[in-house]
Amino acid sequence: MYNKELQNLLEEVNKCFENINSLKDLEELHTFYMGKNGKITQINQLIKEVPNEEKREFGMKVNEIRTIFNESYENKKNSFLDEELNKKLINEAIDITLPATKISIGAPNILEKLIETVEEVFMSMGYDVVDGPEIEEDKFNFEMLNIPKGHPARDAQDTFYIEGEELLLRSQTSPVQVRTMLEGKGEVPIRMICPGKTYRRDDDDATHSHQFMQIEGLLVDKNISLSDLKGTIDVIVKKLFGESIETRFRPSYYQFTEPSVEVDISCFNCKGEGCNICKNTGWITVAGAGVVHPNVLKMSGYDPEEWSGFAFGFGAERMAMLKYGINDIRAFYNTDLRESRPFDREEVE
How far apart are CA 178 and CA 300, in angstroms? Predict the structure, then answer.
């Protein structure tokens, strides 16, 4: 009984594609046979009525019919698609001898490119890139950095306060260093840098901005000294300005490091002979740094008798201005293409 139905369906499937002349007709045929109520679908459901001893043969026959239909369907569909593509190629041919349309290509922001370069160098040395909140608490921005209330350094920072004197826009990225040390719970070494926006009350001009990017770094481990800091600074300076650049330290003072130093690099423009960039000194100041103050370590949970470390920080805009010969810090933030166009993709790479 079922053998005859299956045989008739097989013969029907073998012939049903002969008069199909379009993709639309093909899809309708597919629905007719393979849809929810299609003929092949329906006959497959009859297997529950077939005697057990005939089920295997019945199933194999239905699968054979389904396979034949699907193969014929795919072949026919591919044939239609190829034909359609060939028509498009003929009708939509492009004359490659015509002049090309010039497409403007965007370039990476110079400042972001410099920050990415610094991140890559430090990550290669095992440092983590860490982020933190720009709206910060006073205790992280000042107190835990050895700058208590009433300290003159708070006036020098000229901070943007939001709520009284407890909530503020961070005046430095050093609070992220404190938060990272607290997470270490005084037990693990720390190697991190934190690039990020900082805010200080300042008049905007060619060399100053109320908002600027800092890149600060911190290493806390055992037996860390100024020589470790010097070697680390050398690596990043040579990467940014060339292998011939030298560094030197000058004594300075910061509340959160002791001893503290100013970092100078040999002038890459005049090679030490004196020019307007280095103010005829042969050296350019690029960063502040030092050995982490014992009070900062202690407040962050690290025993200064067991742990030591170094910290450094520099302005990303200043480094980019030196590297690319930019005279106005506002060039990083405005949209005047006359100023940004000279720093195209090739120059920045």
Answer: 6
Angstrom distance (rounded) from CA 308 to CA 293? 9
Task: Report the DSSP beta bridge partners of residue 291.
Answer: 310
d(CA 291, CA 221): 12
- The 10s digit of each residue's pLDDT in 92-145 is 777 778 788 777 776 677 888 889 999 999 999 999 999 999 999 989 999 999
The span from the CA of 231 to the CA of 247, in Å, is: 9
Predicted confidence (pLDDT) per residue in 185-219, tens digit: 888 899 999 999 999 888 777 777 888 899 999 99
Looking at residue 106, its pLDDT comes to 67
CA 119 vs CA 18, 102, 129, 271: distances in Å: 65, 34, 7, 27
Burial of 166 (0-12, 13-18, 19+ CB in 10 A): exposed
Residues with Cβ within 8 Å of 348's Cβ and at least 6 positions away in sequence, in order, are 107, 108, 110, 113, 324
| Stated length of the chain | 349
Distances from the Cα of 237 to the Cα of 88, 111, 128, 204, 246, angstroms: 57, 16, 19, 27, 8
What are the residues whose beta carbons fall under 8 Å from the beta carbon of 71, sequence distance 6 or more?
none
Does residue 75 sit in helix, strand or coil?
helix
pTM for this prediction: 0.65
Q: What is the DSSP letter of 286?
A: E
Looking at domain 110-348, its CATH class is alpha beta
Q: What's the mean per-residue pLDDT of the chain?
A: 85
* Rounded to 5°, angle at Cα 338 from 334 and 342: 100
Asked if the model's pLDDT at residue 349 lies above 50, the reply is: no
Whether 337 has a pLDDT exceeding 80, the answer reads no
Report the C-alpha gap between 283 and 279 in whole angstroms: 8
